[in-house]
Design a protein that fits this description.
281 residues, 60s Ribosomal Protein L30, Chain: A, flat, alpha+beta
Length: 281
């Protein structure tokens, strides 16, 4: 890094930031729908909301999340192009479960040192996941924090906005006797509980590079398996079968049983959950 200014001497490389933006531009632009106004690099992301005039009573929804300490495994394996899928999954799935269609997203990346290729890989992953979910990545921020984070350390977060017709909002009030509980398969651990995962790995003296008998590849790569994105499939399903879905929920934070009790407060409890779906009683 050139020390041509006091700012550069402090550890902030603005030229590296500019290079990272150039590397990620194509993937970010490919996530944009026709409603996005302007290109990457403006002061604010701009989204044409005129389509909302066709709604009877539109409700805007929003969600903010991160990926927790899964980034530590990404750093240990030097694999950064999948963590963006985890971020998008954590954010937009919390929007779709209330019956809303996610519209656009922004991201925030804090790092100890801007390495253009690494930053671009992270954001390109976010952009590709947005594209798969029908969400426009309209902006973001990469912040270099020398002295606060190590050169190879980073954290990533994001926020998204969606919209739902008021009459289509999915709440527990829609759940009724005779409804069937269905589970959608995960791709693995997704992005919750990785502080515990990392402790288990450490307690067993495993390395992320080693292969364990239960896996066909390195442990670190198994743990980095990206979060499955459910949004597109769910939006397609309720579009094809209006009113068929009464309630949706993620189960990653409070566990399956508590999630079930929140979604179905007037049912008899977790014994109603069986493989293949089972009527509530």
């Amino acid at each position: 890094m050139s020390s041509s200014s006091p700012y550069a001497d402090s550890g902030v490389d603005t030229h590296a930031g500019d290079r990272a933006v150039e590397l990620m531009k194509k993937a970010v632009s490919e996530s944009h729908s026709a409603r996005v106004i302007g290109d990457l690099g403006g002061f604010a992301g701009i989204y044409d909301a005129s389509f909302l005039t066709h709604f009877r009573h539109p409700l805007l929804t929003t969600s903010t999340d991160g990926v927790g300490t899964k980034v530590a495994i990404a750093s240990a394996m030097d694999v950064h192009d999948t963590i963006g899928f985890d971020l998008v999954g954590m954010v937009v799935d919390d929007i779709v479960v209330v019956g809303a269609v996610p519209l656009f997203m922004t991201d925030y990346l804090a790092c100890g040192k801007v390495v253009p290729a690494r930053v671009a890989a992270i954001v390109e992953g976010i952009a590709r996941a947005c594209t798969q979910s029908g969400v426009s990545l309209v902006g973001g921020e990469t912040a270099e924090h020398p002295g606060l984070l190590g050169a190879d350390e980073y954290d990533v977060a994001g926020a998204a906005t969606g919209v739902v017709e008021k009459d289509d909002l999915l709440t527990s009030a829609r759940v009724q006797e005779g409804d069937v509980v269905l589970a959608m398969a995960s791709s693995g651990l997704h992005s919750n509980g990785f502080s515990l995962v990392r402790k288990i790995v450490a307690d067993n003296s495993w390395s992320y590079e080693q292969k364990l008998p239960d896996f066909s590849r390195e442990l670190g790569l198994e743990l980095l398996e990206p979060t499955r994105l459910y949004t597109a499939a769910l939006v397609e399903t309720w579009g094809a079968h209006p009113g068929a879905i009464h309630m949706l929920s993620t189960s990653r934070v409070v566990g399956l049983r508590k999630t079930f009790l929140v979604c179905c407060p007037n049912t008899s409890g977790s014994r109603s959950i069986v493989p293949g779906g089972h009527p509530l009683r």
